[in-house]
Design goal:
alpha/beta; Nucleotidyltransferase, domain 5; Helix Hairpins; Serum Albumin, Chain A, Domain 1; 3 domains; 5-stranded mixed sheet; 5 strands; globular
Length: about 350
């Protein structure tokens, strides 16, 4: 028999091929311990709850364990499968399981724990030794925060939309949307004239005081994540400028950090030819091209560079080559000589780009 094993903040869960829950081992309800376990799981390590569950499944007659990690368990046939049935099932059901198995009492409590775990995971990632590794972890954490914020914000809009459906089209940014809910609660309390006037004619349902209390706690957790995102972004910008001033001058600090992430470190980037740097982040497209399934990519993540964005379509490839060439030189200065040539490199690039764009 086959079992699908997946993990979340609540613990480790196993499902059969019909998607039915067959067993579980819960994590301790302590933020630091949950964050530690999730961090180890993401790195591919086996935590004790996983080991306990897999052994129990084996004894129950399950001879194949499918999960989205490359980890072996002695005496058990484990199979790696990304985004499998277990992951999908747990993603949609973990909140219900948390309450069903008395790991948490309310949705608000789950949201609070989830926010704290995300913050703890971010802080854990920032405790790496090498500066370039810290920057790589920070940009990865920033991406995770973005994804989490987007998911939380989507649910917030759907949830509060039952009470005030018209507000979603009137407030475009998720941060502002969360601020309004956190500060005011019920739609009739919103001081903005346009929103207040719309609220009077709103077709949304009434929310009880308990409903409002819960969704305000939820929106507050989103604001906390926006604040953390701002702090992490500033941290990345400062550390990138300090650690690799030349790359930062050419690419901008955030794009520089992303290039570092795809390169696998400053040393690796410094040893890369310009052509490889140009395609960092476009590996999948390149492999498809090599298999004869598409055109050769002209650029990877450097596509986000302002110079490439403003260039005409027929000149984007040329601009990408110029930027990659300067990044190759900049990375060598940053790693080998530790010499700040950022002003000269930036000026040279500007002149070359302007000449090409004419």
């Amino acid at each position: 028999m086959k079992a699908f094993v997946a993990s979340c903040i609540v613990g480790v869960f196993a499902f059969n091929e019909d998607g039915e829950l067959i067993d579980k081992v819960l994590f301790p309800k302590k933020v630091e311990e949950v964050a530690e376990r999730l961090s180890k799981i993401k790195e591919g390590d086996l935590v004790k709850e996983e080991h306990k569950l897999v052994k129990a499944l084996s004894m129950a007659g399950y001879d194949e364990i499918v999960w989205s990690k490359h980890s072996d368990v002695s005496g058990v046939n484990t199979v790696f499968q990304k985004s499998n049935l277990g992951d999908d099932k747990l993603q949609s059901e973990f909140r219900g399981y948390a309450i069903k198995f008395k790991w948490a009492n309310t949705q608000a409590e789950i949201n609070e724990i989830l926010t704290k775990v995300n913050i703890a995971l971010t802080k854990t990632k920032l405790r790496e030794v090498k500066k370039d590794k810290i920057i790589m972890q920070a940009i990865s954490s920033l991406d995770e925060l973005d994804r989490t914020i987007n998911i939380f914000s989507e649910h917030m809009r759907e949830w509060y939309g039952l009470h005030f459906p018209e507000m979603s089209r009137l407030v475009s940014t998720n941060e502002k949307y969360a601020e309004i809910i956190t500060a005011n609660g019920k739609k009739f309390n919103i001081p903005d004239k346009n929103l207040n006037k719309t609220a009077e004619k709103s077709g949304g349902m009434d929310f009880s005081d308990e409903d409002i209390k819960t969704i305000r706690a939820y929106s507050k957790s989103i604001l906390d994540m926006f604040k953390l995102k701002e702090e992490v972004t500033k941290y990345i910008e400062n550390e990138t400028k300090n650690e690799m001033p030349n790359i930062s001058a050419i690419a901008g600090p955030l794009l520089a950090a992303r290039l570092l992430q795809y390169a696998g470190g400053l040393e690796k980037m410094a040893k890369m030819p310009a052509s490889t740097i140009q395609l960092l982040g476009a590996e999948k497209a390149l492999f498809r091209h090599l298999r004869g399934e598409g055109k050769a990519p002209k650029f990877g993540v450097i596509f986000g560079h302002p110079y490439i964005q403003r260039a005409d379509k027929d000149k984007k490839g040329k601009i990408a080559r110029l930027i990659a060439s300067k990044l190759s030189l900049a990375s060598r200065f940053d790693f080998f000589s530790k010499t700040d040539k950022s002003a000269d490199l930036k000026k040279e690039l500007e002149e070359q780009v302007e000449k090409t764009l004419k």
